Structures are given as structure tokens and as C-alpha cells.
């Protein structure tokens, strides 16, 4: 599956957070959407004190890859 639209423009943690919340809207059920919104919020809060730009870049890349995988997993079942 190709990367999510707009993923290449993400530079900051806040942009990532908003992008991932928008991706949650593509999930099929409300329960899944709530689960992943909660997970995104927890991940954002737990990494809010990161100040190393390289570490932030790695976290952003990994989050985008994980979001691609999750959306691919749930949209292929249709």
C-alpha cells in the first residue's frame, strides 16, 4: 500500500498527531476509532518531552509506517 496522502509533509509532532487522528476516521468501526485515538493520545503524551530531532524523526517515520499497516490491515478485510 502506498504511504498515506500528506505523510511526506509531516515535520512536527503536532502535525503527526493531527494526521494520525484523521487516519482514524478511515477505520471501519467506532470502537476501533476510539481505541486507536486513545493509543495515539497516549503515545503523544508519553513522547512529549523528546527534544532530540533525530529521535523525533524516527518516531514520526515509525508512526506513519504503523498507521499505513493498520489501515491496510482493516481495509483489506472488506
TrEMBL record:
The superkingdom listed in its UniProt entry is Eukaryota
> What InterPro entries does the record tag this protein with?
Complex1_LYR_dom, Complex1_LYR_LYRM9, Complex_I_LYR
One Pfam family name is Complex1_LYR
Q: Which CDD domains match?
A: Complex1_LYR_LYRM9 (cd20269)
Could you tell me which residue ranges the Complex 1 LYR protein domain spans?
Answer: 12-68
Record-stated family: Belongs to the complex I LYR family. LYRM9 subfamily.
Query: What is this protein called in UniProt?
Result: LYR motif-containing protein 9
Its source organism is Seriola lalandi dorsalis
Amino acid at each position: 500500500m502506498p504511504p498515506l496522502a500528506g505523510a511526506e509533509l509531516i515535520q512536527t509532532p503536532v502535525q503527526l498527531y493531527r494526521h494520525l487522528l484523521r487516519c482514524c476516521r478511515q477505520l471501519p468501526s467506532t470502537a476501533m476509532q476510539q481505541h486507536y485515538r486513545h493509543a495515539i493520545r497516549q503515545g503523544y503524551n508519553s513522547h512529549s518531552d523528546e527534544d532530540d530531532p533525530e529521535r523525533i524523526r524516527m518516531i514520526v517515520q515509525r508512526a506513519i509506517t504503523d498507521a499505513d499497516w493498520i489501515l491496510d490491515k482493516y481495509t483489506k478485510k472488506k
